[in-house]
Amino acid sequence: MMQSDLKELKKKVLIQKMPEHIAIIMDGNGRWAKERGLSRTAGHKEGMQRLKKIVKVVNDLGIKHLTVFAFSTENWKRPKKEVDFLMKLFHRAFDNEVEELHQSDVKIRVLGQIEGLPRNIKDKIDKVVEMTNKNKSLNLNIALNYGGRSEIIDAAKSLALKVKNGSIKLDDINEEKLGNELYTASIPDPQLLIRPSGEKRISNFLLWQSAYTEFWFTDTYWPDFDERELLEAIADYQERERRFGGLKEKDSR
Ligand code: IPE
Ligand code: IPE
Ligand code: MG
Predict the structure, then answer these.
(1) CATH of the domain at 69
(2) Which range of residues forms the domain containing residue 92?
(3) pLDDT tens across 187-242, in order?
(4) Is residue 192 in a domain?
(5) In this predicted model, what pLDDT tens digit does every residue of 176-189 receive, in sequence order?
(6) Is the CB of 27 under 6 A from ligand 2?
């Protein structure tokens, strides 16, 4: 696609209703690397570069929330060498990339079992969250050691405890109360979820929050996912009819 086409696409997307929250499963780093005869770790490095670029694009589009899946509670199953590399990569990114995000007024939040992360990363997360806390532009949520099912279990436990100690009644439990116990409390549900790399599954990401999310899949590996594809995903989302179990307006008459 030529540069002028990209501009046209951007114009088209910007005049329609923008999603307020986009979620991305950053998948395909390993296969991207393998295709090039590189190590999987090289793919992860490239994936991190891609994240930087996409955050910029999303922020420039005026989108309010971006949630990216960086490491799942199941990813610990991978070889120690790969896990160690990823932890180093996250640590380095929190060190080196956050200042620029802070300058762009991006607010960072980390979703997941932070207590299960290495000490040095936990410390960085505290610093980064505190530093960007008052920022007003894009809310960047990084899902790190995140698992949708364990998130829901933790929320259930927390509500059970509140019932037990009498601070709420059993019958008071509703969707809003449970939602408020999730890592995503106060973040609206994503309207659009993008999964690159050709896989068509949710892999334990935002299970509760994606009840009515629109999904968009592409075969592109994450390190190659660019502005053009992001705009295509948004344009496609903008043409969908979201019914939430109801009917189209003209059919309900
Ligand atoms: C996503 O890329 C990064 C993480 C899960 C940490 P993968 O490492 O899953 O890449 P593929 O799916 O093996 O290509
Ligand atoms: C999902 O990708 C997790 C992240 C991208 C961080 P995986 O590569 O772990 O998912 P599966 O194993 O293909 O379902
Ligand atoms: Mg994968």
Answers:
(1) 3.40.1180.10
(2) 18-147+187-239
(3) 999 999 999 999 999 999 999 999 999 999 999 999 999 999 999 999 999 999 99
(4) yes
(5) 999 999 999 999 99
(6) yes
How far apart are the CA of 86 and the centre of ligand 2, in A? Answer: 13
**Residue 225 belongs to a domain:** yes
Ligand with minimal distance to 112 CA: 2
Whether 9 is covered by a domain: the verdict is: no
Catalytic residues: 27, 75
75 lines ligand 2 (CB under 6 A): yes
Domain count, the chain: 1
Does the global pTM surpass 0.85?
A: yes
- How many C-beta atoms lie closer than 10 Å to residue 227's C-beta? 17
Q: Does an H or E element contain 140, and which?
A: strand 139-146
Q: In sequence order, which residues have a C-beta less than 8 Å from that of residue 86 and are 6 or more positions away? A: 44, 71, 75
Closest CA to 23 of 212, 181, 243: 212
Residues with CB under 5 A from ligand 3 (ion): 27
User: CB of 213 within 8 A of CB of 190?
Assistant: yes
The mean pLDDT value for 118-142 works out to 98
State the average pLDDT for the chain: 97
